[in-house]
Amino acid sequence: MKNLSRNIRHLSLADIEEYFTAIGEKKFRAKQVYEWLWLKPVGSFDEMTNLSKENRQKLKDDFTLPTLKTDHTQHSEDGTFKSRFKTHDGHFVEGVLIPTASGRYTACVSSQIGCSLSCKFCATGYMDRKRNLEFDEIYDEVVLLNNLCEKEYGKKLSNIVFMGMGEPLLNYKNVLRSIERITSADGLGMSPRRITVSTAGVAKAIRQLGDDRVKFKLALSLHAATDAKRHDIMPINDSNNIKTLVDALNYFYKLTKNEITLEYILFKDFNDSPKDADELIKIYRQVPADLVNIIEYNPIDFAKFEKPEEEKVEAFMAYLARNKVNARLRRSRGKDIDAACGQLANKDNH
Ligand code: SF4
């Protein structure tokens, strides 16, 4: 038998079959174990109730089964939930469940513990990046938020966005592998069209997504439409400027035919003027974007930015509409529990 990972969730079904055969057990036991790992995930071997006591003990001797645990959950007055999850090695990440009036139940999940990109408006950007989340940890976030959704709303998740803590494309392999599990028939069986990966703009990885012919949706956090302004708020723009990103997005579209979404947070007196809207429209016309999400800014303690006045937001939206941009205003959700976009920072709110 080949040298197997100690973490049983990092094994394929074929690996587990090989293991059971090697210990003189029936091969179908592997399928039973695999279902406990992915279809109805459990946190310990003892919960695998259709295995004999001896088999469970043998698995305990040979493998580990590290899973993410919900440490704390907060409920916003607008129906949003924020969960803080604890990893097996004592780190914390956050995920958010957002119900909408249109009947959607969206999970916003994290891909890294902390983040290295230091976007100036984002609370996570002020934390150090501790490590990448493993694909099974990301999968657990989705399962735990799905369980919460079923418990609170009697519904399954309808959408998943990778917009929580971390830059998903700097944890490329684990993010793609988690999506493979989320969409797999022996995982959550969700359509990839209901999953959006949002990036701060890693051009090389966007091209790789094209080469990998991914089926999920891609969103670019643009937030400023000139290099000078983007440099001020997103240091990643120095190595991945707007032209490089535009080229990468067109390459991605050529190979996948997946249109992308542009995300644009409005900051008072920074990117909310008609001139800024013109710059945004220019980029919108250069990339295969079917939508621009204009996002209401949520102030955080460390940053100097503010939210524009309502009239300015309306004027910005009207300007885009007059120029035939398909734009949607996204009001922030879960502000009272620091669950809104850019606010995730493992603050202790007990
Ligand atoms: S916005 Fe995203 S990429 Fe930027 S610091 Fe926050 S988590 Fe990282």
Write the layout of secondary structure elements.
Layout: H1 13-22, H2 28-39, H3 53-62, E1 69-75, E2 81-86, E3 92-99, E4 105-108, E5 112-113, E6 131-132, H4 135-153, E7 159-162, H5 172-183, E8 195-199, H6 203-211, E9 217-221, H7 227-233, H8 242-256, E10 260-266, H9 274-286, E11 289-296, H10 310-322, E12 327-330
Parallel strand pairs: 4-7, 7-8, 8-9, 9-10, 10-11, 11-12
Antiparallel strand pairs: 1-2, 2-3, 3-4, 5-6
Helix pairs in contact: 1-2, 4-5, 6-8, 9-10
Bound molecules: iron/sulfur cluster.
Distance between the termini: 48 Å
Secondary structure: helix percent: 25-40%
* Biggest sheet, spatial arrangement of strands: 1-2-3-4-7-8-9-10-11-12
What is the gyration radius calculated from CA atoms? 22 Å
Tell me the fraction of residues in β-strands, as a range: 15-25%
Class inferred from helices and paired strands? alpha/beta
Estimate the mean pLDDT confidence: 93
* Count of individual helical segments: 10
Broad shape:
elongated
Order of helices and strands: HHHEEEEEEHEHEHEHHEHEHE
Low-confidence stretches: none
Annotation, overall tally of beta strands = 12
Let me know the largest β-sheet: 10 strands, mixed
Ligand list: iron/sulfur cluster
